[in-house]
Write a structure and sequence with these properties.
Number of strands: 12
CATH class: Alpha Beta
Mean pLDDT: 97
Distance between the termini: 28 Å
Number of domains: 1
Low-confidence stretches: none
Largest sheet: 5 strands, mixed
Helix content: 25-40%
CATH architecture: Alpha-Beta Complex
Shape: globular
Radius of gyration: 19 Å
Length: about 280
């Protein structure tokens, strides 16, 4: 089995190098998408690492916008999918909390499982207004918020183009290349779905979940493999620090997020020691 790690990055090339070091394994290759808004020069030396490639077609990524989806699709289209069994989509602010061998064995032993969270937006994860209202998150012009409010007053609630149940929770996942090929083909055949998601808020958190949940892959779905702390009750997860070490250590997940070496670099060094990676 071979696994491609698609890593979305926008800052801290040193932290990204630590992530690459921690995931070294003969069966792992790395494909890095650098936000088009960021200067790519500080990241270019990373291709000197073994089996590291930069995604050539870069997208501009804005929080809660379609750019994250486009960056992921760009990565999928540049990764030679026939060469891999899985693609693991993570952020450069994620970090493994299990050794690379253990990560490989865990996924290999569950070959065919799609690790992607699929919570109902009506009950389990109640965020229905993000899809039923018009959001102009992907456009930047004066007065857009007034226009957005007006649209939601005068227009009926938005409806998904297909008779699908919308689910999701996270835009990080580990999917078989069969599921990825299916998703790309689905989007190619359903431009109305892409248009629909471009007017959602944070569509990256449910586009791929929704596609796969309403497909033949549904019965193979399991929860994603990343530990995240949402205890702050905010739209962003908590930045993990040394105070979170014991909770991270006791987690059964394979990765954790999110980390920022500018906030706390010691936690990353502690995790390196935990999984046996030399600094």
């Amino acid at each position: 089995m071979r696994i491609a790690h698609l890593i979305l990055a926008h800052k801290n090339p040193i932290q990204l190098q630590m992530l690459l070091n921690a995931l070294q394994h003969d069966a792992f290759h790395f494909y890095i998408h650098i936000d088009q808004k960021a200067n790519a020069e500080p990241f270019k030396h990373l291709i000197n690492n073994k089996n590291v490639f930069l995604i050539k077609k870069r997208a501009k990524i804005y929080w809660a916008g379609y750019g994250t989806i486009q960056a992921t699709i760009n990565g999928f289209e540049e990764i030679p999918l026939d060469d891999y069994d899985y693609v693991n989509v993570i952020s450069a602010q994620d970090f493994p909390i299990k050794p690379a061998d253990e990560i490989y064995n865990y996924i290999s032993q569950r070959n065919g499982t799609e690790f992607i969270t699929c919570l109902s937006i009506e009950t389990e994860w109640p965020i229905a207004p993000r899809v039923t209202k018009y959001h102009l998150i992907n456009w930047r012009f004066p007065g857009k918020y007034k226009l957005e409010s007006l649209l939601n007053v005068i227009l009926p609630k938005r409806k998904f183009p297909l008779d699908y149940k919308i689910v999701g929770r996270a835009n990080w996942f580990t999917l078989t290349t069969k599921a990825i090929k299916y998703s790309l083909d689905f989007l190619g055949r359903n431009p109305a779905v892409i248009q629909y998601f471009k007017y959602c808020w944070g569509a990256d958190e449910f586009i791929f979940s929704t596609i796969l949940y309403n497909s033949i892959f549904k019965n193979n779905i399991a929860d994603y493999l990343i530990y995240v702390d949402w205890s702050g009750g905010r739209a962003h997860p908590k930045i993990l620090t040394v105070d979170d070490y014991e909770a991270i250590k006791s987690s059964s997940k394979l990765f954790a997020r999110k980390f920022d070496m500018d906030t706390d670099s010691l936690i990353l060094k502690m995790l390196q020691d935990l999984i046996g990676v030399k600094s």
